[in-house]
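As described in the Methods, two query proteins were run sequentially through the folding procedure within a single session, without resetting any intermediate state between them. The first query and its resulting structure tokens are shown here.
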Amino acid sequence: MQAIGDLEIVYEDAALLVVNKPAGLLTVPLERKGAAPSVQSQIETYLRPFGKRRPFVVHRIDQDTSGLVVFAKDAATQSRLK
């Protein structure tokens, strides 16, 4: 199974990326916790070599919760899934 740092990639295709988020990690960066690492920032670093600018979060889970998190690789996919 492929990984992004501590994140296990559960599923990936041309439009979606599903990762297993560990407890203690933010799903997306927060202004009030600017220095805290997030799933979104780790995925952004992973996608950069493929010419993608940023992942689009489909849903979030709390920092202290572990579980699967879905990111779209483009805005149109995110819109369809929301």
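Immediately afterward, the second query was submitted; its sequence and tokens are:
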Amino acid sequence: METQTASVKKIALPYGLLLSLTTIVISVIVYVMGMTYDQPWWQSLLNFLAMIGFIVYGIKTYKHDNENYLSLAESLKTGLAISLVAGLIGAVFTYLFVTVIEPDFAMNMLEATREKTLSDKPDVTQEEMDMITGVTEKMLSPGIIVAFSIVGSLFIGFIVSLIAGLVMKNNRPE
């Protein structure tokens, strides 16, 4: 007799959506507070905690729906699917933010980087400053920002899923 397992898609879509909405709300709060170019530490912390919470709870829900059995592979698959959904939705928001909502984002971020570099290292040479701004300018293109947001989401999702899977693993008996 074959047992039916839980659906990763059924778990990934709502948890990925909730995760992305949470991080978008946090980003909007930071934007409204005027802190977009000097990203506050608590934004990263809240985003990270949200990611841990939604992935772990999604994996726990998958395990519950799967008769309390969970393999490491199922944990990774579920966590990465949640991360992918959240990363794709977040990437769309990020693209809209840097191209429509705040089209001067790259220019303002570049200026903030220059100011921070000068305050942190006042004896920076013009050659060093040109190199720093050149690299920063390339990294601030909408395509690169979107790509890094998806890859970053998947990377953190993998680590969280791996740890959660190792802790919650309960293999089905043969």
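The mean pLDDT is 90. We note this only descriptively and draw no conclusion about the first query from it.
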